[in-house]
Amino acid sequence: MVTQSIPTVDLSPFGHENGGDEAVKKRAIEEVGRACSEYGFFQVVNHGVPLGLLARALELSQLFFDYPLEEKLKASPIPGAPPSLGYTKQIEHLTDNNEYILMFTPESSFNVYPENPPEYREVLREMFPHFKKIALIVESIISQCLGLPPNFLRDYNNIRTWDVMAALHYTPATDGDDNVSGQSEHKDSNCISFVYQDDVGGLEVNKDGKWIPITPNEGTLVVNIGDVIQVLSNDKFKSATHRVVRPIGKSRNSYAFFYNVDGEKWVEPLPQFTEAVGEPPKYRGFFYKEYALLRLKNREEPPARKLSYASKF
Ligand SMILES: O=C(O)CCC(=O)C(=O)O
Ligand SMILES: [Fe+2]
Predict the structure, then answer these.
(1) For the Fe2OG dioxygenase domain, which residue ranges apply (predicted)?
(2) Strand duo 41-45 + 8-10: pairing
(3) pLDDT tens-digit map of 52-105
(4) CB 189, CB 226: distance < 8 Å
(5) pLDDT digits (tens, 9 = 90+) for 120-134
(6) What's the pLDDT score for residue 302?
(7) Residue 166 Cα: closest atom of ligand 1
(8) CA 28, chain centre distance (Å)
């Protein structure tokens, strides 16, 4: 049996300030386009995020999450701060068994950092702008493979205050555990997500009803399309369903960067994928903050276009 895997794209030609081989770039853009319409997922190598930093960040996560709960709770979110920045452990009775630290851009005063290990705070702060940089590159590639100008999504989505980074930890499943879920199946509501996972594995993407495991590789970042791109592109690119399965006997650490749109942003299928090509919009428009709130409460899909005349279209 051939094991399916998601496509891997080399980003080295995009790292140059003044160019990079145009033909190689064009091929990479085509590959990303195929991956986004077939899988909603791909992997990138030569992404420019220093591998030493990623490795150190995973080590520090392991040290932090190994502390007693009491120590970890010292980094609890400030009550009322959006959206629970700092350390959170999923409530025991929930299906998903994970704990995490969330942070906004290092400039944000809402962030709550762990005091220990002492180096952790600086490493978390250092990681964020690297993810942001790679997100801008991938965003431009996605604009191009949607047939839009390279800066289209960047101009549409120019407020960076809703980007979120998560350091995630999954406790090991035990033999005979009837729940091995780390994160149950879901789609990401944001624009584009980036995941760096340790060598334990467990991230899986659903394609045509089958779960494809994403094999960890220390040089690789996983990229997936979120609901915002699915809606803007009127389903040209799909936000793929994925999940995390907890491996037996091994704890797992990962980092996720959720490249987002601002809460005040109005999101609806772009005319390029509707009027211009004679396709009806598949979604009605929404302010992103309303959708983000809805997704916090439940795991609904983007609001489908209602067929009644009373709807927006
Ligand atoms: O931990 C991972 O590998 C993926 C996390 C994820 O899918 C999410 O937080 O939305
Ligand atoms: Fe996700």
Answers:
(1) 161-261
(2) parallel
(3) 999 999 999 999 999 999 999 999 998 877 668 999 987 665 667 889 999 999
(4) yes
(5) 999 999 999 999 999
(6) 53
(7) 9
(8) 20
Backbone phi, then psi, for 273, in 5-degree steps?
-110, 5
What residue's CA is closest to ligand 1, atom 5? 256
Q: What is the pLDDT of residue 5?
A: 82
Q: How far does the centroid of ligand 1 lie from the alpha carbon of residue 96, in Å? A: 11
- What is the C-alpha to C-alpha distance for residues 263 and 293, in angstroms, rounded to an integer? 10
CATH of domain 8-298: 2.60.120.330
**300 Cβ contact list (under 8 Å, min separation 6):** 294
Confidence of residue 312 (pLDDT cuts 50, 70, 90): very low
Q: Among candidates 197, 198, 173, which has minimal Cα distance to 248?
A: 173
Which ligand is located closest to the Cα atom of residue 253? Answer: 1
Please give the distance, rounded to the nearest whole angstrom, from the Cα atom of residue 306 to the centre of ligand 1.
31
- Which amino acids bring their CB within 6 angstroms of ligand 1? 166, 168, 183, 188, 195, 197, 203, 242, 244, 254, 256
DSSP code at position 82: T
Domain coordinates in residue numbering, the chain: 8-298
User: What tokens appear for 193 in the block?
Assistant: 């997500």
Name the residue with tokens 């944000």: 108
Cβ contacts of 55 within 8 Å, gap of 6 or more: 218
Reference 38, options 229, 207, 179; nearest CA is 207
pLDDT in tens, 151-184: 999 999 899 999 999 999 999 888 877 778 888 8
Q: Residue 28 — very low, low, confident or very high, per pLDDT cuts 50/70/90?
A: very high
From 61, 206, 250, 254, give the residue whose CB has the most ligand 1 atoms within 8 Å, as the site to mutate: 254
Query: Of ligand 1's atoms, which has the minimum distance to the CA of residue 242?
Result: 7
Q: How far is the CA of 19 from the centre of ligand 2 (A)?
A: 32
Residue 35 to residues 133, 151, 166, 256, 275: CA-CA distances in angstroms? 21, 21, 24, 20, 25
